Amino acid sequence: MRRVLIVIIAMMLFTTVLVSCSSSINEEIAGTERQNTANLGNTDISDNSQVESVSVLANYPRIGLQDYRALYTDEGKTVSQKDYGKIHFSECRFAAFPDTSEVGIYNVMYPDITAEASLATIEAWLASEHIENIDLKTELRDVSNQYPSNESADYPYDYPAVFDYYPEFESGNGFFINTPFCHLQMGYYNIYSMSNGVITQYVNPGNKSGLDAMGFYSENIVEGGLVSDLKDKSYQLLNGEVKIGDAADTVKKYFEKGTPLTGPEGMTIDGPYVSVFSIGDIYGYNFNVRKVYKGVPFLYGNNGTQRGPSEYYVQFDIKNAYTIDGNVDAYAGFSQGFEFVPLTDSQTQIISLLTATDILDSFLAKEMKIDVSEVEYLYCTIVDKETNKETVYPCWVYTGYNHSDSRNIRCMVDSINGEVFYYTYPTES
Fold it and tell me: Is the pTM of this model over 0.85?
C-alpha cells in the first residue's frame, strides 16, 4: 500500500506526461530558424509582480473572433483540399470551433496553502461526503518531509501524524488520508485526489481506498469514446442504469462547484472522453476531465512519453474522475487551486486556421510527411524546462501520424503570434 501513496504523490508533483527528449529532434521536425523561439519569459511565477508581458506581434494577418466562427467550416474545407507539401488532411476531423469572444496568453500560478486552510478543506470535504468514522488525529498524515517519518511503523502510520506538529507546518500541501473508508490528498493548494470509499467497499472491503483514485479497479475496459458520441448509452451502475451523458453532467457540476476551489473566473469544466469498465457484476465510468477557459477547452490526455525540443515540454490536462453509482466516487489529477496571470491584453483577433496551417507547413522540415487526423482550437500549456514556468497559449492543434519517423505527432500554432510548438509520441500510446 505504500506504493499507492508514492504513486499519488508522484502524480501530484508531476502531473504532466513523462518526457523524453533528443538533441536531434529540432533537425528532424523543424525546418526553419524559427524553431524553439517560444517567448516563455524569465520571471519567477511565484512572484506575480515580476511577470512580464508578451508582445503581440504583427507578423501575420489576423481575423476577428466574432466574424471567424462563420468562416471556420469553409476554411476547414479549403485546408482539406489544399495541396500542402508536408501535411495532408484527406482524412482529418475538424473539431467545432469554440464559442468565445476573446483569448489571451497566461502564466499559471499555484499559491501555497497553510496548514489551517488545508485542515479546514479536509474537514469540509469529509462533511460533504458524510464520512464520520475518521479519527483525524490518527489518520491525517503528512508526506511533505517537513517532519521526520517513522520507518518502523506500517503504512500509512510511518508518515508523521499532522496533529503531532499542527499548526507548525509551513505548508499544508502534504496532508493526506488513506483508509478503507476514504482517501484524500492535498496538493497545489487544493484537493488533488480523493475517494469516498464507495468503489473499495464494493470491490475489496478493507483495502486502502487510494486505489480508487488511481483507477486500480477500472482497467477492464468494455467501451470508450467521446461523451458526445456515447451520451445516450446507459450501463448498469451500482444504483441502476445511468446514461453516460447524465453521469458526465454530474461530473461537470461537481468540479464546477469546486473541490473546494473553482479556479479563475471564467473557468469551467468539461468531461469530453469516457471509458466504460466492468467491475464485479456492474459497470463504472472513467471520465477524462479538462479545463475550459471562457469557452476554449484545454488540451487533455493521459500519462505517456513525449519527445520534443530541449527547451520546453507540453503539459496536458490530466485528470480522471471515476463513478460506479452515478456520483463522483474518486478522482486524481490537476488541481483547481491556481491563478491565471495575463501576459497580453485580451485578444479579439486571431490567426486563422488557413494562415496557421501555412505557418506550420513552412516550419516543418522538408522531409516531413504528416497525415493529420484532427484539428482543434485549444489552450495549450507549455512548460519551460529550466524555470518550470507554465505558460498557456490559445493554439491551433494538429494531431496526426508522422511517416518520417513512424510516430504520432502533435503540432501547436499559437493563434496570437504564430509560435510553433510540437512533440512526437509512440504509436502505441
Answer: yes
